[in-house]
Amino acid sequence: MRLHRLDITAFGPFGGSQSVDFDALSAAGLFLLHGPTGAGKTTVLDAVCYALYGSVPGARQSGQGMHLRSDHAEPRTRTEVRLDLTVAGRRLEITRQPPWERPKLRGKGTTVDKAQTRLREYDAAAGAWKDRSRSHQEIGEEITQLLGMSREQFCQVVLLPQGDFARFLRADAEARGRLLGRLFDTQRFADVEKRLAERRRATEARVREGDAALLAAAHRMQQEAGDAMELPELAPGDPGLADAVLGAAAVARATVRERLTVARCRLAAAESAHAETRRALDDVRELARLQSRFAEARQRAERLQERTGAHREDRRRMERARKAEAVAPALELREAAEQEHHRAIRTEARARGLLPDSCADAGAAGLASAARRAAEELGGLDAARRAERRLTELAEEQSGLDRQERADEEALREAEAWLAQWDTTRAALQSRVDSAQEAATRAEQLAVQREPMRSRLDAARTRDRLTADLEQARQRARASEQRALDARAHWLDLKEQRLNGIAAELAAHLTDGEPCAVCGAVEHPAPARKVEGHVDRETEERAHQTWQQADARHIEDERRLGVVREALAAATAEAGDQPTAQLEALATELEQEYARARRDASALHAAHEELRRAEHEREQRLADRQQAAVRSAARLTRRETLEREQTALKAELATARGSSGSVAARAAQLERQVALLTDAADAARTAEDTAQRLKDADARLADAAYRAGFDTPQAAADALLDPAAHRELQHRLDAWQTEEAAVRAALAEADTAAAAQRPPADPATAERAAAAAEHRLREAASAQDAAARCCAELDRLSAHATEAVRALAPLRAEYDRVARLAALTAGTAADNERKMRLESYVLAARLEQVAAAATARLQRMSSGRYTLVHSDGRTGRGRSGLGLHVVDAWTGRERDTATLSGGETFFASLALALGLADVVTDEAGGVRLDTLFIDEGFGSLDDQTLDEVLDVLDSLRERDRSVGIVSHVGDLRRRIHAQLEVVKARAGSTLLQRGVPSRDLSR
Predict the structure, then answer these.
(1) CA–CA separation, 867 vs 890, rounded Å?
(2) What is the pLDDT of residues 856-881, one digit of tens each?
(3) CB 952, CB 860: distance < 8 Å
(4) Which of 187, 196, 204, 191 is closest to 822 using CA atoms?
(5) Closest CA to 910 of 864, 858, 867
(6) Which has more confidence, 956 or 124?
(7) What is the DSSP letter of 11?
(8) Is the pTM here over 0.85, yes or no?
(9) pLDDT tens track for 212-267
């Protein structure tokens, strides 16, 4: 990395624009940066660091760059740092502008502009600068990647702050570790230590969790085994826990199995005793049953003996009933014949009762002969009946002719009267038709005037309504305009407030280690804080949205106002200036006149129809009058024909009626007489037949009763049983026989008789003995089941515990391995004799390289007296690995660097800084550092030592390096000709280059 040019504007103590030509200064190899205290020597180095990384070293970085601005600068001059350098073969220009609180362009007060960053690269082929990026983050990543070191490493390697290295020489191991860790980025080794510690804790937690689960299983086994298992007093994570639990489980399983064997023996004995008591109980119950059966049979036999007489009577009744069953068909036949004969006698009596006295005593043959004679007489009246019906029809027809004659006469009179008024009626109807036609014509004329009148009236009403709406629209437009102006003013105020406090808003998103979005810095020592009433982005956006909405409403109200104006002009043009009330009166009058015309015109069709119907009715009445005259002539001829036929029929009927009122009455009389005589003859013949059948049935019944052994038919009838009585009697006989057989069988059983000879049985005592044996059996079975369940559960839990121990073994092995590695990297393991952490071990190697590189220069500066060596020794109770000693060649002794004098400490720290720069450069990937700065400390050297130190620094030119010494020691001004002087003044500091050829620094 080689610096070419640095431009500073309003930065630190420099109120104006200042430039540094590093190419001219570097040409001398060694140049001096000097000036009074507080003039701004360190600010030049801060500007280089700020240009590269967007932040300045140490505590000087605060307020996100707000404090970098010079207090001497003009209010409208912006702070800017521009650095031109070559790194990794690329010519770059970095321009950075920190946040700037400037006066507002309009109004009073100030506002804050965001930080700006720009990266340009020189294109040698084109001979021009090209923009590469304006992103803080992209530029920061690009520079860090090109340099290969962080800001802290850059400040230690390029700026070489001697005070820090002097403290490094005197610091303890912990302080050296912190500094070296920042320089060599050994955080990954610290992360390895942390990761191993975390894995150790996580694995230990998992082991403890497994041990806890194993102990929980052991407690469950103890609950199952009871006093058969004793658990050791161990906690999760204790060594030997798994073996102790498995051993206790094995002892418990053996004890429970012994108890199961004992329980099985007791169960077998209880089962044998229970079976014996059950057999005894069954024997006692059987004996009691047989004894009860014998006693019951004796009692049933005694009851049968008491009912013997009744049984013999039932048997006699059953025998007589069986004999009577042979007579039953003859009895039924005789009873049916008797019933039929009685019915025939009653029917004959009723039929004879309806006959006249002259025929009441006649026999069946006489009645039949009388019926035939009456039937012959009835047949001779058929022609008379037809004549009588014809006479009735003639009378009805004659009556119809009379009715027609009266109707025709009435119709003729009405037609004559109506036709007499025809001329008057026709004139009136024609007048109605003409009036309705005139009304229809008037309605059509008025209909043409209605639509224009309606449109004009609607326009007048719209004109009146829009006149009122126009004023309201004006008011709404004025109100929305005022609201939009107020909303815009409110938004602009909030926006100005937010811009004033934008630094605090940006600071809220800063994260340690992450680059700032404005300046790209990764450290944020003093971020801005939000003050009371701070306006954030959401509040500003809401205000802006509110203004946009209010402005949109105002535009919409203005548009509506224009629409109302256009509509009002159109309505006024159509309605004219005539008032709406007057137009409404004219429209109402027109509508009323139109309604009357329509109402009158609506009668036109009815008038036409009524005239047509009247003309049709006149034609119909003329035709009816002519037809009535024709019908009158035809009726006269028909009357004469009917009268002749009536006279002939009346003479014929008078002969056929005889003494009856009519032929029909005479025929009805003869028909009834024929029916009565026929019925009486049939009833007489039926009575004679049933009497003969009854006599035959009596003879057969007497014969059947005699053959069955009964003296009379009545005795057979009395012995006969109905079905219900027969079933009941048979049931009693069967029950007697069944009971008698059962009693004989029971009394004949040998075991029953033998049991009756033994003493009475005692089932209650036997049942109590059996219940006691069964209770003992259940207890033994329960004990055996409990022991078996306990044994099975212990086997299951033991298998589960064994499996858990087996599954936990790899985890425990992993824990042992991780714990050993974690202790080793943390420096707490017994194998780590020096108690050196992993990060300290890596830093010790780096420190050893730094000591070797520093010794080459330290020996030249000290005339070969001093040598820096790395020490692994421990100091007190601290950890070893970062010790640093100096070997004094004059005394041959090795001593601590804290024993060096002030001047010795300076050139030792300078040598250490240069050696560290070489090692860090190699660590960063071999990026060449062509420009170095050394800050202060030269005042503590004598002339000889100062010459030697300057020789060492001057030798750096051999490697094409330039070294800038920052000091206010006066002797250096005489020794170093190339100088960059910082001149302090009341208006701000300025830069002057001396001892180098002047060059044009303008762009």
Answers:
(1) 11
(2) 777 877 778 888 887 766 655 555 56
(3) yes
(4) 196
(5) 858
(6) 124
(7) E
(8) no
(9) 776 777 777 777 676 667 666 666 666 666 777 777 777 777 877 887 788 788 88
Going by pLDDT thresholds of 50, 70 and 90, the confidence category of residue 953 is low
Instruction: Please state, in angstroms and rounded to a whole number, the distance separating the CA atoms of residues 921 and 944.
Output: 30
Checking if the pLDDT of 836 tops 60, the result is yes
Q: Is 396 left (phi over 0), alpha (psi -120 to 50) or beta?
A: alpha
DSSP string, 298-329: HHHHHHHHHTHHHHHHHHHHHHHHHHHTTTHH
β-strand pairing of 80-87 with 90-97? antiparallel
Question: What is the distance between the alpha carbons of residues 500 and 165, in angstroms, rounded to a whole number?
Answer: 42
Helix (H) or strand (E) holding 992, with range, is: strand 990-994
Spatial separation of the C-alpha atoms in residues 678 and 129, rounded to whole Å: 156
Residue type, 447: A
CA atoms of 914 and 207, how far apart (whole Å): 51
Q: Confidence class of residue 1002 from pLDDT cuts 50, 70 and 90?
A: very low
**Cβ–Cβ under 8 Å, residues 76 and 102:** yes
Query: CA-CA distances (angstroms) from residue 395 to 388, 402, 640?
Result: 11, 11, 13
What is the sign, positive or negative, of the torsion defined by CA atoms of 672, 676, 679, 681? negative
Quick check: helix, strand or coil at residue 711?
Answer: coil
What distances in angstroms separate CA 179 from CA 546, 778, 826, one per listed residue? 55, 84, 19
Span 544-572, average pLDDT:
86
What mean pLDDT, rounded, does the chain reach? 76
H/E segment holding residue 97: strand 90-97
For position 767, what pLDDT does the model report?
Answer: 79
- Residues 118, 129: Cα–Cα separation, whole Å: 12
End-to-end C-alpha distance for the chain, whole angstroms:
22
Return all residues near 188 (Cβ < 8 A) that are at least 6 apart. Answer: none
Instruction: Look at residues 603, 350, 381, 567 and name the one whose alpha carbon lies nearest to residue 461.
Output: 567
Beta bridge partners of 81: 8, 96
Task: Match 């009524």 to its residue by tokens.
Answer: 610
